[in-house]
Amino acid sequence: MMSKPSLSPELLVPRLGQYLVEKGLIQPEDLDRALQHQTEQRAKGEDRLIGQVLIDLGIIDFATREAIITEQLAELKTTLQEANQQLLEANQQLERRVQERTAELQRAMEKLAEVNQLKSNIVANISHELRTPLTHLKGYLELLLAGDMGPLTEQQQATLGIMERSSERLGRLIEDLLMFSMSEKEKLHLHLTPFSLQTLCVSCLHKSIQKAKDRNISVVLECDYDLPEVDGDEEKISWVVLQFLDNAIKFNQAGGKVTLRTNREGKFARISVLDTGIGIPEARIDQVF
C-alpha cells in the first residue's frame, strides 16, 4: 500500500518545482532528477511531495522550501483577493444595470398607462359626441318613415330604410366603443334583473339579420321555449351575443349558416353561437375564452 504524504502547506502550492526553476533557485536538470526520484519512490509505495524530495536529495534546504511556499501562498492570497474584488465590482455593476433597467421599464409602463388612459378618454369622448347627433338622425328617420312629415314614394322609403339600418349599425358601433372604453377603465358594472332570454335572442337576431342577408348567410334561432326568466345584465349579455353573431357572420362564407341556440342546463341557461366559418385555431381558444 502506498503511504500518503503528510499534511503540509506545500499541498496548497501548485507546480512548486517549476516555480523554483523560474526563480533560479534550482536548475532544470535538478528538477528532472527530483521528479525521477519521486517516481521511483512511488513505485516502492512512498508518495512524497516534490519539495520534500528536493530536500532529501540536498538540492534545497528546508528554509528555502518554506520561504518559497510562504511566497506562493502570499501571491495566491493576493490573486484571490483581486478576484473577489473584481467579482464584487461586477456584482455591483450588474445590480446598477438591473436597477437602471427596472427604472426604465417602470417609466415605460407608466408612459404606456398614460397613453392607454388617454386613448380610453378619447374613445369615450368621441363616442358620447357621436351619440347625440345620431339620436337626432334616427329620430328624424323614424318620423319620415312613419309618414309624419308627408307621404313618401316607394323609392324614398327604400332609401330611408337603408339609412335607418345604417344608423342602427352605427349606433351599435358607438355602443361597442363605449363598452370597450368602460371595460378598459374597469368601470363595467353589472345591473342584474330578471329578463327573457328568448326575447333577447330574437332581438339580437333581428339586429343581425340584414347583415347576414347582405352576405347570403342564413341565420337560425334554436331556442328552448320553456326557458324561464334568468337573472343577469340584459344589456351587456345582449352586447356579447351581438359580438359573437357579428363575428360569425363576418368570418363566414357565402351560403353559410349561423345558428343562435339557447338551452337549459340544470339551474343555468346556455347561449351558443355556431357557424360554418373558418373557426378559431385550437391553440388560440384559451386566449379568447
Q: How would the blueprint of this fold be written?
A:
Layout: H1 16-22, H2 28-43, H3 50-56, H4 62-146, H5 154-184, E1 193-195, H6 197-214, E2 218-223, E3 230-232, H7 234-250, E4 257-265, E5 268-275, H8 285-288
Parallel strand pairs: 2-4
Antiparallel strand pairs: 1-3, 4-5
Helix pairs in contact: 4-5, 6-7
Biggest sheet overview: 3 strands, mixed
Helix-strand category = mainly alpha
DSSP strand (E) fraction?
5-15%
What order do the SSEs take from the amino end to the carboxyl end, as H and E?
A: HHHHHEHEEHEEH
CATH class of the largest domain: Alpha Beta
Explain what you see.
The protein has 289 residues and is mostly helical. The chain folds into 3 domains: 9-77, no CATH class; 97-188, Orthogonal Bundle (Helix Hairpins); 191-289, Histidine kinase-like ATPase, C-terminal domain (Heat Shock Protein 90, 2-Layer Sandwich). Helices cover 64% and strands 10% of the residues. The protein has 8 helices and 5 strands; from the N terminus they run αααααβαββαββα. It has helices at 16-22, 28-43, 50-56, 62-146, 154-184, 197-214, 234-250, 285-288, and strands at residues 193-195, 218-223, 230-232, 257-265, 268-275. Strands 2-4-5 form a 3-stranded mixed beta sheet, with helices on one face. The chain has a two-stranded antiparallel sheet with strand order 1-3. Helix 4 (62-146) packs antiparallel against helix 5 (154-184) and helix 6 runs parallel beside helix 7 (234-250). It is rod-shaped. The model has no long low-confidence stretch (mean pLDDT 83).
